[in-house]
Write a structure and sequence with these properties.
There is one protein chain. The protein has two helices and 21 strands. Strands 4-3-6-7 form a four-stranded antiparallel β-sheet, with no helix packed on it. It is mostly beta strands. It is about 5% helix and about 40% strand.
Length: about 325
Amino acid sequence: MREAEQAEEGTPVRRSAPTLALCLALTGLAACTASDTQAPPAPAGLTAQAGSATTVHVMWDAAADRDGVTCYQVFQAGRLVRELPAEKTMVDVTGLAPQTAYAFTVRARDAAGNVSGAGPAVGATTPAAKAEDRAAPTAPAATGGRSTGPRSALMTWTAATDDTGVTAYDVYQGGVRVHTAGPGETSTALSGLQPDTVYTFTVRARDGADNSSPDGPAVDVTTPPAAGGAPGTAPSGFTATASPGTVTLSWTAPDTGRETSDYELHVNGRLTTTVQFGAGAVPAGRVEHRLTVTEPPGTVWRVKLRARLPDGNWGAFSAEREVTLIA
């Protein structure tokens, strides 16, 4: 009661030495610091697009690094339907009813457990179900793309056709869907890309029964280096051609200020080998390299490569090419 009596009398309460020692031990500072109670901002750029009679594709912009977001929570009509790690900024909400309007919101949560506000809700209406629809749409006949900045790009395509109607267009990169656009759209903006990177995009059409078309023509998009960065470091004009027992790779070396003698080759997402050209044997201009293959015919490779830079680091990857081995 002595400390309480001193506080009532206006006398400062002196903190005991053990308490001060504990604060210093925990923080390494001269005083105890407050816990994190600041919630991250609500996710921006929220969109929702019906992909079929029973699914809606929900997307949003990634949070800034400074916000410390560790996960996102997706709500439908106030009910939590999915929780995703911070590196995921899209999800298909499944098990929905045909011809039904839905509203979605997304919240961000940080490592301290602080949860953002929801932000404005976005809506999507699922189309009617089509019984026994097994026919896929046609593939978009033409695809285009260009970078609009170090971290963004614009994709375009021609409209596809379907016996029951196209309900969505899906943009793929490296075999992974990265964006979904509406049935009446023939272009879309992509964000969250990396500077100085070559992306190979394709577009597929989808109908209300979730039948997807084949890929439309692939298009390469190269994002420029970030402001103040050095020239691009990705090998350009990369091709991969199969012939009996071999795959021939060809590319143009990046302009790094000196000869580029070492390249890392990745096949199906894994480092396979390092291609090295000895002193006096480094090709000038166009580079060509042949690989001997032992896998059976029909095996599909997705190949890409990157160059070792003068500072010893590896540069950006080339475009990725798909090649089917032949006998």
